[in-house]
Amino acid sequence: MAKKYDLIIVGGGSAGLGAAVAAYDAGIHNILLIEKEATFGGILNQCVHDGFGVHLFKKTLTGPEYAHYLVEMLKERPFDILLSSNVTDISDKQEVTVFVAGQGVMLFKTKAIILTTGSYERSAGAINLPGDRGAGIMNAGQAQYFLNLKGYEFAKDVLIVGSGDIGLIMARRLSLLGIKVHAVSEIMPHSSGLKRNIVQCLDDFNIPLYLSHKVTDVRGKPRIEEVDIAELDDKFEIIPGTTKTFKVDTLLLAVGLIPYVALSDNLGIPTSKSRGPVVNNNYQTQLPWFFVAGNALHIHDLADDAYFEGEEAGRAASLFINGKLKAPTNTLQVVPGYGINYVIPNNLELPLNTEELVLKFRPKENYENKRIVVKIDDTVIFKKFFPFLFPSELVILKVKKELLVAGEKLIVEVSDE
Ligand SMILES: Cc1cc2nc3c(=O)[nH]c(=O)nc-3n(C[C@H](O)[C@H](O)[C@H](O)COP(=O)(O)OP(=O)(O)OC[C@H]3O[C@@H](n4cnc5c(N)ncnc54)[C@H](O)[C@@H]3O)c2cc1C
Asked: Are 269 and 285 in contact (CB under 8 A)?
């Protein structure tokens, strides 16, 4: 007989720990938290730089310190945990199959699930990287793991592709270790990283940033030896005569994180533009017992935001377990309008069961002096001025419950007015 839980949380990073703490505090104590790795924390464990925890702990911590503080919070809340345990399946009968290291396969039954499995990195194949596939081509997360957790120095000369925060932070980390970072190449005409990271991670180390550039060839086997990049025009076509060659032994790909949703995909739960499952304002999918939060839903810049989202999902799942949250009826669809890449949530349940509607979204491009307008059908219900909007910065907007009116679609858009 499968052991029964009220709530199973899959993934023990910031979001999963936030979900567990909030659900426990809401009175749900029959919880099982399952983590694939031997310790909790997820991405946090490999991020040795500081900048974590400003909102939650009111101090700036390294990733492992932040993970330690979160784990301390669990000690006051006794519930079941499984570490070194990989969830391989969640069935539509609400059964969870787990491979537990050293013990074999276990099956559990649950009233509700919160999926907090984080994200994976876009690979060389996903960006159609041309040329040889010699050793030395690796993802930034892998590199972080080797350097920070294993202590391997695997490179002497590096070219980084991708100028998001992960690429920028890796440029600084490698430079501090005495590894030569020749350049950062970015396909877009702008960096998708924070301005302060460009200054602190590239400018301070004299590392050039080549915007509107892409890799056109990689040469070398068994280890790579040379990488070519070339400039692109505004139609993303290569401009002849702009090739630059770098003699490097490592090409580090920092080309984006994607929500890891294999377990919800298996259940046929659709995904949205964020590449995470479609959810309503309760972080509830079309299966009323299946909730999602953190990077598994959309990519978060800040661990605090992933933690707070986990908390919200934990509270909503608790309501569901206590019979106080019904199956979604999706009263209002939420749609990204002009200039917006994606919006979370994807649907709203009205009347809202919270005082404010929290909208999270990313702009498609860099904008200056624009307004974010929230409309229900043709009625503008909310406007806010932003001197700057960047795709690299998640915007979190709170709209008061009483501003919501009846309609079909809630639209979030960038506007001049
Ligand atoms: C390089 C880098 C730098 C960053 N810098 C900062 C910063 O300075 N400040 C800041 O606040 N934030 C920063 N962030 C963002 C922040 O770390 C993340 O947004 C946040 O930690 C994501 O938490 P999560 O719980 O959603 O995902 P994760 O941390 O990825 O956790 C997911 C967990 O699920 C587990 N899991 C996955 N699949 C399964 C399965 N099938 N069974 C069991 N367990 C499973 C994983 O092992 C993992 O532990 C950074 C992120 C990166 C990548």
From this structure: yes
